Amino acid sequence: MILLGRTVKKLEQTYDAIEAAGYPTPAIVPLDMKGATKQNYLDMVDTIEDQFGRLDGVLHNASLLGVLSPFDQIGEDSFDEVMQVNVKAQFLMTQALLPLLHKSADARIVFTTSTVGHIGRAFWATYAISKFATEGMMQILADELSESTIRVNAINPGGTRTAMRAKAYPAEDADKLKTPLDIMPLYLYLMAPEGREVHGQCIDAQPKK
What PANTHER family would the database entry show (predicted)? Predict the structure, then answer.
């Protein structure tokens, strides 16, 4: 397992939790997606190939919420920052990693989307547009890779107890929400051999009854 993110302290906390649970020791690759270039991702691929020789899956989970605002009041800088992390970074990373994933006998790419990536919502323009792009990226890749050994899907976690959710809904009772740990089995299923037959799907982790 390779942990990638911009905050080393958070990566180390995740590293410690994985080790404490008795799982194989992960690797840490610090990378700030806000400023990462194509060359940064190509260098990352070289590092992965040199140290591990292969890659069997990619889970995209990094996202910025941006500012919830009327469409005509969204600042260009805020919009660009969200698109950089939520869309361009995932595009460049996936593009760079595809040659390595093609070497795997059973590879996965899993994106994280949102309910507003299915249906747009007032004042959510920046984030929603980025998640519509995420779902489009997943669908295109799934179609292009349908005859390959790479399975591509997306997960909508739904309302989850995270800092981003608290920022979007500050008055909400977080204790009534699922935790990330509650949602994790779906991610693990899609990344595991058992999820081999699932391809090109956007799955709601908390489907409405």
Answer: ALCOHOL DEHYDROGENASE
- The residue annotated as part of the active site, out of 15, 127, 169, 187, is 127
Q: How many domains does the chain have?
A: 1
User: Does residue 69 lie in a domain region?
Assistant: yes
Q: Is 127 a catalytic residue?
A: yes
Report yes or no on 116 lying in a domain.
yes
**Is residue 98, in this structure, part of any structural domain at all?**
yes
Residues 64-70: contacts with CB within 8 Å, 24+ apart? 64/127, 65/127, 65/164, 65/167, 65/168, 66/126, 66/127, 66/130, 67/126, 68/123, 68/124, 68/127, 68/168, 69/123, 69/125, 69/126, 70/122, 70/123
Residue 174's domain comprises: 54-204
Per-residue pLDDT of the chain (209 residues; tens, 9 = 90+): 899 988 889 899 999 999 998 988 899 988 999 999 999 999 999 999 998 889 999 999 999 999 999 999 999 999 999 999 999 999 999 999 999 999 999 999 999 999 999 999 999 999 999 999 999 999 999 999 999 999 999 999 999 999 999 999 999 999 999 999 999 999 999 999 999 999 999 999 999 87
